[in-house]
Amino acid sequence: MTTPHPQEIELKLALPPGQADAFLKRMARRRSTPVQMDLATRYFDTPDFALSAAGVALRVRRAGRRWLQTLKTEGERQGGLSRRIEFEMSVAGGALDWARFPAEALVHVPAALREQVGPVFETRFRRTAWLLKGRGGAQIEVALDIGEVMAGESRQPICEIELELKAGQPDALFALALEWAGAFDCLPFDVSKAERGVRLAHGVADAPVKAVPLVLEDGVSVEEGFAAIVQACLTQFQANLPGVLSPLPNPPPGAGEGANAEPKPIDDIEYVHQARVALRRLRAALRLFRRVCVLPDDLMGGLRTLVAALGPARDWDVLCSETLPAMAPHYADQSGWRDGAAALDAQRAAIRMAMRSALMQGQPGAWLLAMQRWLQQHGWRTATQEQRIAQMSPLDAWARRALKKGHRHVVRGARSFAELQPAERHALRIAIKRQRYAAEFFQTLFPGHGRRQARYLALLRDAQDSLGRANDAHIAKGLLETAPAETGPMREFALGWLAAQEAGAGNGDSAAHLHDFLALKPYWQG
């Protein structure tokens, strides 16, 4: 029989395996009798995974002596909270029975595909479930799943909490999730077991996530655009956070071990880079909308804490993985260079450990959930009448004004670039970065100007990068000046190299890029 509630609303949390016993003890204090069952689930797809590509998950699950088949469609997923259409009914055995699905479910799997469907991966886990009463009379099924995903010989562990809303409002899910995120270091988790199985079957490893182009539909309001931009930044940060919190390989690869050294694996440091980019984009968005959509002080404070935790680790990653290897071939004593680089890499590893500790103290999981809750509740609407009118105005006209204002700041600095002092050039780089992010946020609002947009963004990126080289040299000098004595003479060599680079880094390139930028007519003016 089909479930009477075809829309599934749930919030998923990744639970650190070492916290599972503590979570069970906490739940034992509640007035709800847990139900335990071992679940074996077989997922079905075509050989080329056409169903998963279309956002469809198809499975048959054994729970005790009962078999259930389920079809889930792709839905809205934000910060661990998902809304999906679900069709579920009992079947006689472990095979699919297409005749049991209602017609509205079969629309998602055309007849031509049904003939190709077969089992592709499995999950096996123990589920401990409770039925709880939540805020506002809500009913919530809480399930702790511990087990593994299996595809061929490959395995991946499962340790997650699912909160499914049976009755009431989704805010009740956030209230519970926030409690547990603070107590057990949970993180909101958007990846379903089906998606993990598909990746495992394809042999696709987790990887750092870059910002993706944001699609803003025509006619959206300022507040709708704001919410979409903030959501995109949070999604990127959340996707990279597990990689940031993972330890580096032990021992960490040496930095700059001579001209013929093997390149350093980049995934571990790229997680930190992309997480930091996500938070920088978020800060730029909040600044851009600061007069119409204001973030509460507690959430802004949490953001500052997370940004501060990531900064030193990223600076050391750039020093050890990019800056030093570039100068290593020019140092005569390669053995001495390796010894000095090893000492710096050890300090970098200590900075990474401090970063993880600072991040966990900042409770990033709880902060992400609180941000999502604020977005769900449209928290910016506690505003003045003037702000409310601005929030409801069309985004495209507002975006034109915002881009024009940011453009003026860049033009002012570009025209006087030759006379700018180092601090002023740094301020210009920040203005360029903010304008670049704004142009990327609003890119789809100007569909008829693709080539001019691309040229505008390319010049902003080039100018930002060329100005950034002097800043990177300045930061690297500061790190080396506090480096341990074990670095030996290589440190003095590196400091001299960086001083020369800082003095002349990017001056010619920056001037050329800014000259070309000044010749551009802003694309949003028609």
Outline the fold blueprint:
Elements: E1 7-14, H1 20-28, E2 35-45, H2 50-53, E3 57-63, E4 66-72, E5 76-78, E6 81-91, H3 103-106, H4 111-114, E7 118-133, E8 139-151, E9 154-167, H5 171-184, E10 187-188, H6 193-202, H7 222-245, H8 267-288, H9 297-327, H10 334-361, H11 364-376, H12 385-392, H13 395-415, H14 422-441, H15 450-481, H16 489-504, H17 507-518
Antiparallel strand pairs: 1-6, 1-9, 1-10, 2-3, 2-7, 3-4, 4-6, 5-6, 7-8, 8-9
Helix pairs in contact: 5-11, 7-8, 7-11, 7-13, 8-9, 8-14, 9-10, 9-11, 9-15, 13-14, 14-15, 15-16, 15-17
Description:
It is a single chain. By secondary structure, the protein is α+β, with helices and mostly antiparallel strands. The chain has two domains: 7-202, Beta Barrel (Hypothetical Protein Pfu-838710-001), CATH 2.40.320.10; 222-525, CHAD domain (Alpha solenoid). Helices cover 52% and strands 17% of the residues. The chain has 17 helices and ten strands. The protein has helices at residues 20-28, 50-53, 103-106, 111-114, 171-184, 193-202, 222-245, 267-288, 297-327, 334-361, 364-376, 385-392, 395-415, 422-441, 450-481, 489-504, 507-518; strands spanning 7-14, 35-45, 57-63, 66-72, 76-78, 81-91, 118-133, 139-151, 154-167, 187-188. It has an eight-stranded antiparallel barrel with strand order 1-6-4-3-2-7-8-9. β3 and β4 form a beta hairpin. α5 runs antiparallel to α11 (364-376). Residues 1-5 and 250-266 have low confidence and may be disordered.
